[in-house]
Please model this.
Amino acid sequence: MDTGQTMHIISQLSLGAVVTFLAILLWPKTRDAAWMLVIIGSIAAYIEIVFSILKTFGIGGEGFLHIGSVPLITFLLPIIRMGFFTVAFLIMLIRQSRQS
Model:
């Protein structure tokens, strides 16, 4: 592993940890559904980062369920993250259209 890859991994883990920590701190202070979904999406993004780094080191379990040649967990993690963000933004758009 070269220096660039090491710095990439360290920056992803450290910035992802900060975002996740701040999201967890914000969680009890908000009861808004859109914000809750953004917070959950941020936590899911960090889970995806950790899983990809573990997979880079050969530690991540590929699982036994596959969709074609792609492991199910590798397939689902980005979909879950983007799903939370999509629903959050849809809720915000619906609110904006009702207010207009």
About this structure: Strands lie at 66-67, 70-71. The two ends are 54 Å apart (CA to CA). The chain has three helices and two strands.
